[in-house]
Amino acid sequence: MSEALEGWNDFNVAMVGATAALAGLLIVAMSVNIAEIMKSPTLPARAAASIATLVLAIVAGAFGLMPGQSDVVYGLEVIVATVLAATFQWHAVQVIARTPRASPVRGERILKSIAGIVPIAAFLVGGTLVALGVASVGLVFIGVGSVFAIIAAILLAWVVLVELLR
């Protein structure tokens, strides 16, 4: 583990535990209402993107705890994991954009998309900076991405609950 990553050890341990617990709760909550969720044109894609972003936070934290790896390797691991999670987010954005507007709130589609894009962008910037040798700044972006992943997942969980009860 590099010196830069070592300083993030406690944060990574906390984030892996928190995001894993939240991901598990989100999956259980969705499984209870899966039939209703699958009827929605947007909720399945948004749920998948949310879980993928939480998994990204888990993976980034877990890789950050692996001993003996360089900053460059860690940065590349985060970039690869981010690209995989971004495919789910990209699909969700496309589904939201194609679905007829149900709400009169202007800009609602953009807000729905931004909630999922912000953590992905933070991880991508962070992984790139770490891989390029600017670990001190890159690790902050990855940490912020982890926190935003949790916020986005909680927002999605709320949206799913509200949408199911409409």
Q: Rg to the nearest angstrom?
A: 17 Å
Helix content class: over 70%
**Order of helices and strands, N to C?**
HHHHHHH
Uncertain runs with pLDDT below 50, 5 residues or more?
none
- How many domains in all? 1
Main β sheet profile: none
Question: How many β-strand runs?
Answer: 0
Rounded mean pLDDT score? 89
Q: Helix/strand-derived class?
A: mainly alpha
Termini separation: 49 Å
What is the overall silhouette?
elongated
Strand content: under 5%
Please work out how many helical segments DSSP would assign: 7
Ordered list of secondary-structure elements with their pairings:
Blueprint lengths: L2 H4 L2 H24 L1 H6 L3 H23 L5 H28 L9 H24 L3 H31 L1
Helix pairs in contact: 2-4, 2-7, 4-5, 4-7, 5-6, 6-7
Question: Could you walk me through the main structural features you see in this protein, from its secondary elements to its overall organization?
Answer:
The chain is an all-alpha fold and 166 residues long. It has one domain (3-165). Helix content is 84%, strand content 0%. The protein contains seven helices and no strands. Helix 2 (9-32) runs antiparallel to helix 4 (43-65), helix 4 packs antiparallel against helix 7 (135-165) and helix 5 (71-98) runs antiparallel to helix 6 (108-131). The protein is elongated and about 50 Å long. It starts with a helix and ends with a helix. The model has no long low-confidence stretch (mean pLDDT 89).
Descriptive tags:
mainly alpha, 84% helix, 0% strand
